[in-house]
Amino acid sequence: MRKIGLAIIFAFVMNMAGAQAVCKALFIGNSYTAVNNLPLTIYQLALSVDDTLIYESSTPGGYTFNNHLNNSTTTSLIEQGNWNYVILQEQSQNPAFPIGQVQTDVLPYAAQLSDLIRLHNPDGEVMFYMTWGRKNGDASNCPYYPPICTYEGMDSLLYHRYLLMAELNNAAVSPVGAVWHYIRDHHPEIELYSSDESHPSLAGTYAAAATFYTVLFKKNPTLITNNLTLEAATAQTIREAAEVVVFDSLNRWFEYVELNDTVQIQDQNLNHNLHIYPNPCYDYIDIESPYLEENNVTITIYNSIGMRVKTQNSNMQERLRIFTSNMPQGYYIIELSSQSITQRKSFIKK
């Protein structure tokens, strides 16, 4: 009887581990989401694992975050509410432009969309869709901004800017661009780009879909059995890339989210109790953290190229004001550090 009982319990646990999950997601973007119908592809991959994606999308070609804020279809879909995730994908070049331009043309609208999403989806999460650098860089804008002349340069900027957007808006990231980078490095035989060297091929969309399956359902993408029209070996290689980059460090892509009890991700280094405001700031920034009450806590501010611009000690109070009126406009990192902790968050000085 004891052996039978253990077998029943084991079967029950295994059944629960593979239980069907349902996720409701709204995709807001442009052709990078629309080409090859990324939401449908995610749905198909999830279905092979007995999971269900319920989705809607607003993806007019070339759209920016600012365009979406003024688009009634987009705002109406957001206002429907009841989304588990609302995914935001900016125009493919904008986040890689000089930081001053990003601060004007991207970040304010990312913040406005995030606020609108949370207003109508208090139990949902904002997720940024990290895109990829063009196959050989952004040739049209290379003469004006050399860092984007190559794939590596453009992709690096996109990577950091999407993480910045996530941090500024307490959001998650779907690191599609990071998965593409891994595949380019380790499996260059897989062609991720269409002929325009910008939009995804079928393999590129499959890589994006495997990434999204992982972050939306928080499951190992190697569970997927649907290869779609790809060769089995190619599809498996892509799924394994998503496993390495995304699933094996899943908390990395959620570390900016103000986690609730339903998200089963634990990370002792999450900065949930470090709050800075106003952000963006003008003349000052207020910092709140229980760690400020400890002895020997140092507050350091670094600029966008990692240079230290200000350092001071905590006054052992939970709230501290730092004046920023003499600091140039730009993107900064604030760090709280002591022998026992290190906390960091970014902010913008206007």
Q: How many domains comprise the coordinates?
A: 2
Helix content: 25-40%
Average pLDDT, all residues: 87
What is the highest CATH level, the class of the largest domain?
Alpha Beta
Strand arrangement in the largest pleated sheet: 2-1-3-4-5
Rg over alpha carbons: 22 Å
| Alpha plus pi helix count | 11
Indicate the CATH topology of the largest domain. Rossmann fold
Q: For this structure, what is the CATH homologous superfamily of the largest domain?
A: SGNH hydrolase
The class by helix and strand makeup works out as alpha/beta
Low-confidence stretches: 1-17, 259-272
Walk me through what this model shows.
The protein is α/β, with parallel strands linked by helices. The protein has two domains: 19-254, 3-Layer(aba) Sandwich (Rossmann fold); 275-349, Immunoglobulin-like, CATH 2.60.40. The protein is 35% helix and 19% strand. The chain has eleven helices and twelve strands. The protein has helices at 2-17, 31-34, 38-47, 65-69, 72-80, 99-105, 107-120, 151-168, 176-186, 202-217, 232-245; strands spanning 22-28, 52-58, 85-88, 125-129, 172-174, 275-277, 284-288, 298-302, 308-313, 319-323, 330-337, 342-349. Strands 2-1-3-4-5 form a five-stranded parallel sheet, with helices on both faces. It has a four-stranded antiparallel sheet with strand order 9-8-11-12. A hairpin with a 5-residue loop joins β8 and β9 (308-313). The radius of gyration is 22 Å and the shape is globular.
